[in-house]
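Q: What structure does this chain adopt?
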Amino acid sequence: MKIAMIGTGYVGLVSGVCFSDFGHEVVCVDKDPAKIEMLERGEVPIYEPGLDALMAKNVAAGRLSFTLDLAQAIDGAEAIFIAVGTPTRRGDGHADLTYVMAAAEEIAQMAKDYVVIVTKSTVPVGTNRQVKQAVRKANPDLDFDVASNPEFLREGAAIDDFMKPDRVVVGVQSDRAADVMAEIYRPLFLRDFPIVTTDLESAEMIKYAANAFLATKITFINEIAALCERTGADIKQVSKGMGLDGRIGNKFLHAGPGYGGSCFPKDTKALARMGQDHAVPMQITETVIKVNEETKRRMIDKIFDLCDGSLNGKTVAVLGVTFKPNTDDMRDAPALTIVPALVGAGAKVRVTDPQGKHEGEALLPGVQWSVDAYKAVQNADLMVILTEWNEFRALDLKKVARRMATPRMADLRNIYSVKDAKRAGFVAYDSLGRPPFHADPD
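A:
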């Protein structure tokens, strides 16, 4: 089957590459000439483990290609996926559907034969019906169906998520569209991965409800961590005890500096806005958004407390700035709130991240970039762990402490422990939801 993928961002590129690995002929189209040239050279514009090799394999097999020409991409395609951005619209919290609707109208102008227009982008409930109306208005004679096929890809594990999904959600209005979508996902059906077929609105809602629930789980455990700090409980033990309950599960119960990334921030805002528009306030989601921002600010307070209330003139080493490990994505990362606060307080901030420099240089002015953690902590007064990259999980803490001017650590991912810090020679250590350690240096 021939598939056209409109948009070569994170979702579009990963999906297009994986569909081609299923055996389909996939043409990925984008309006950015620089991005298409890069892809045609075999270079991947995003960091996603394993994507470069899988892309090269399918290009070599003749199943995957890239173009600026939309007409060429959709010529003969049985399914056209829209995988363009839907960022939060300034001022009102709505998802911005400008790119989705523009793509739909272009498809209408160029498509000739029956085709299923599939929305892969995350869109508010009712969007696929709007897409159908826009296409029908632009080309009343076109034979087509629309389908909703939201993505559930975790950055850093996207290929595995696509190839071994918890479920595939497909919203359709006709048996004909359902048959096309079933053929696209046939390799997964044959391996007994769940394919959930619904109406359009339910498919759209599943995506938002799932992301809001996960964001709620993260925010809940962060609030419990704050309470643990006041009561003397240990959040790691609390999380373990909660997670062993099969009704709760252990995923997304790790205390941290707040959620970020391309999905949770914008999707929670969009869901909250949908609730307001339909007079059904999403009060839990609205609170989650508020508490998540407060969590980031609470991290700043922790850092100040470790440095006796002042960062002016102090050197701070920040380990990790991407919103999670195994990605170069910095969208709404906690670092974008925390690091500027440190710079603004007069600290000399050194930053290191295995993949974050490409985006981070523009987003974090006033910091100095280091090649690794050991360079970053040289003569530093404080080390802050913001992202739990594997490189930071196995540091030689004694070596780190010896290099620092004053060995203090803000472990905002709970990688280490007070015992680890004391043994290594740190004079102060604080984490989330656990008792801190603070002593005057010898």
